[in-house]
Each structure stands twice: as C-alpha cells, then as structure tokens.
Amino acid sequence: MTEEQALPMVLFFGLVTVLLVRSREVPWWVAVLIGLFGLYLGQTPAVFMISELVNWVFSRFAA
Predict the structure, then answer these.
(1) 21 with 31: CB under 8 angstroms?
(2) pTM here?
(3) Measuring CA to CA, which residue among 1, 6, 33 is closest to residue 17?
(4) Phi-psi region of 44 (alpha: psi -120 to 50; beta: other; left: phi over 0)
(5) pLDDT of residue 1
(6) Long-range contacts of range 50-59, CB-CB < 8 Å, 24 or more positions apart?
(7) What angle, 0 to 180 degrees and rounded to 10, lies between the N-to-C axes of helices 46-62 and 28-41?
C-alpha cells in the first residue's frame, strides 16, 4: 500500500475516532489507548499481514 492509498484511510479513521470521542461514546483516554495500540501494532511484522488483508478486501470491491 502506498502513501497515497494509506492517507485517506488514516484521515477516515482519524475522523471517526474524533467523532466517537466528541459523541462521548468513547472516552478520550480510551481513544489514546487505541491510538497507542495502533502505533505499536504498526511497528510489528503483523502490519504486513494486515496490509495484505486490506488490499485483498479493496481489490474485491474494485472488481
């Protein structure tokens, strides 16, 4: 996945997170923990498996 493909997903998930925190469905500290989890998950080899899964799902919708 290139940066051009990943940036809209980052913006979308960031916007969803902000809206959930503002609606008080998710407290701010839970959103921080989720963000930290994503940050550390992105530094593990699991990021490649997750990236391939996302690419596979998007390729099914594009076909």
Answers:
(1) yes
(2) 0.55
(3) 33
(4) beta
(5) 62
(6) 51/1, 54/1, 54/9, 55/1
(7) 100
| pLDDT, tens only, 2-57 | 667 777 877 888 888 888 888 888 888 888 888 888 877 777 887 888 888 888 88
Dihedral angle, C-alpha 49, 16, 20, 47, nearest 10 °: 10
Helical axes 3-22 vs 28-41, angle rounded to 10°: 160
- Sign of the torsion formed by the C-alpha atoms of 8, 62, 42 and 48: negative
* Amino acid at the residue 25: E
Hunting for tokens 């390729």 — which residue is that?
Answer: 59
Whether the Cβ atoms of residue 1 and residue 55 lie closer than 8 Å to each other? yes
